[in-house]
Amino acid sequence: MSTLHQIYRSLIQPYSLYGIVAWGNAAKIHRTKIVTFQKRALRLIYLGDCKSHAIPSLISSYLLPLDVLYFKAVAMMMHDASNNST
Prior knowledge:
By secondary structure, the chain is an all-alpha fold. It is built from five helices and no strands.
């Protein structure tokens, strides 16, 4: 794992995951800004062109897009709620 990848996981990813269940589907304007920031950071890590797609970078870095992270967090919360372990 590269140093830039570790920096992404320690500085950028926690901010995108914090409170994702609370604001995930409500504020589209902020979500698009965060998705854009996530894609820009991945392009910077992998030295991609500013017009290149971010999907190959997401796949090679084993990271999930913000929308998938939202669905994962909601599914985990619903699982905990149905098992009375919240």
